[in-house]
Amino acid sequence: MKRPGSIPFPILRVLEAALLLVSAIFLILHAFHLSADFPNHSPWMDWAKYTDEGWYGDAAIRHFLRGHWYVPGDFNPAAALPIWPLLEAALFRFTGVSLTAARGLTVAIFGLILAASYLLLRRWQNLTAPAGHKPTTTLAPAIAVLLLAVSPFCYVFTRMAILEPLLILLTLLALLAASYAGLQPESLPTNLRTRLHQAIPIVSLGLLLPLMVLTKTTAIFLLPSVAWILWARAGYRIRPFLRLILPAAALAAITWIAYYAFIVRPHFLDDYHYLFSANAYTGITPATALSVLGDTITDGLWIGNILYPLALLAIFSAFLLRPRLLRNPLIPALLLWAAGYAAFLAYHNNLQPRYYLVLAIPLTLLIPVVFSTLWTLPQPNSEPLSALRRLGTVSIVAVLAVLTVTDARQTLHYVRTPDYTFTSAAAQIRKIVSADHTHNPLILSISGSNLSLMTGLPSICDDFGTMDLAVRVKAYHPGWYVAWNQVDDDKMDALTPTYHLQRVAAFPAMDDPERNLLILYRLDPATPGTPPRRHRKPVIPRLLQTSFGQQPSSLQLEH
């Protein structure tokens, strides 16, 4: 019998299909203008748009451009974070190295994020249905997918070839795998098929967890969310929970330890440690604790001026207004996801907009899950919805409609008005460098890896690396230096003993006042009368000829 006040099933199906169709259209729009700039003059000033797409895919870029992925003394994050460059390398084998291919991969991952979000919400809708009752069909999964698909915040950051989208996808898959974990009652006989059915989710978890950490080490802050789902699947009992989590944890630990013991420790230990030391320049302190916590919370508005307060209202409702909502294990799991990553943001105290993408997903999913549960809670004696609940339902639906329209409008604006300042500047740099046959085409720049991704020119980083910059310059003999707006004093000190910087061209690019002019310098020998170095391969340590080997002693780079 249909509950009074509920929407008929056929209408629900039509509405769900319409919401998913709109979501699919906006997902397709993500694939337009893939080589365009990160939207200029947006609310999100994140320096990752100058560097990170190249840095974290550098191993794949170098593998195809140079024949080897590892450059001793330079910045080699793939030693600690190998999963994303491996995926890019698999793609580049078919497409070649290109910015469009890398970003296309991220858009495909976002599509999988939408699918995994839908399946996760639908899965827990079925699991939380009362015994003997058909699961109640709601629009919560479709609404969640729509909110993510039209979000301008998700649009700009899921079109960048960075680590966060892949981390989100792996986390959603881990939550899905955990939702299928379970134990057969001991009183029932087990056969091979039953054991395989029980083992597949655990084995999947055991592989997904190290993949998460090897994608981005901050994944450890998301593990409590996965553990909660296992705790719920174990019936909130300790012994069944241990029987579920210990095999998955053991497989995950063995996988990660094997990678560290056989690959990192004997070959890339300095690069592995350097990645963490290079990011240790910020952090929360007792003196800054209150201000950092306040900034961590208020900066959540980057996710959306309507969506973020609505998500906070959903959290407030779950905790205070309807404690029974927490009986749905997905709600505490999403809360732990958001709280865990927010704790990392506060601890690290480097509040960049891209980090909030990992928060945006669980907060967005919470909105339809919590509010749909509120307006579908059963009424005593099957009475129609009370006037107060009808008012609350209408209000939430109205806010969701406004949120969807405003977000869709902003996303469509970004789709219709692409800029190509960075890629245009990169193309002109490539033309100049390729036309000069007297200087080494190797580029030195903090954005060098991004330029390599866009142009195919080889590069090394002028900011990060296990070898001191002055030593690296003498070892690799770059022929060109690319700076943003000016040459910093420490870079000039490293270059002037060897080179004279000759400004060749400057190109307006991007929108940050501190980084909106890309300047190309030719590096001429500093000694008067010395002819320019003829084009040849860089003089590099012998180690560069192989992927593995003993790395030369490194010098700590000051930041």
TrEMBL record:
Instruction: Spell out the InterPro entries in the cross-references.
Output: LipidA_mod_glycosyltrf_83
Q: Where are the transmembrane segments?
A: 12-32, 75-94, 101-119, 139-158, 165-183, 203-232, 244-262, 274-294, 306-323, 329-348, 355-375, 387-406
* GO MF entries: pentosyltransferase activity
Record-level GO cellular component terms? plasma membrane
A biological process (GO) of this protein is: lipopolysaccharide biosynthetic process
Keywords, sorted A to Z: Cell membrane, Glycosyltransferase, Membrane, Transferase, Transmembrane, Transmembrane helix
Query: Where is it localised?
Result: Cell membrane
Taking the record's annotation, the residue ranges forming a coiled coil are none
Q: How does it sit in the membrane?
A: Multi-pass membrane protein
Is Transferase included in the keywords of this UniProt record? Answer: yes
- The question of whether Transmembrane is a record keyword is answered with yes
Which PANTHER family does UniProt cross-reference here?
A: MANNOSYLTRANSFERASE YKCB-RELATED (PTHR33908), MEMBRANE PROTEIN (PTHR33908:SF11)
User: What's this protein's name?
Assistant: Glycosyltransferase RgtA/B/C/D-like domain-containing protein
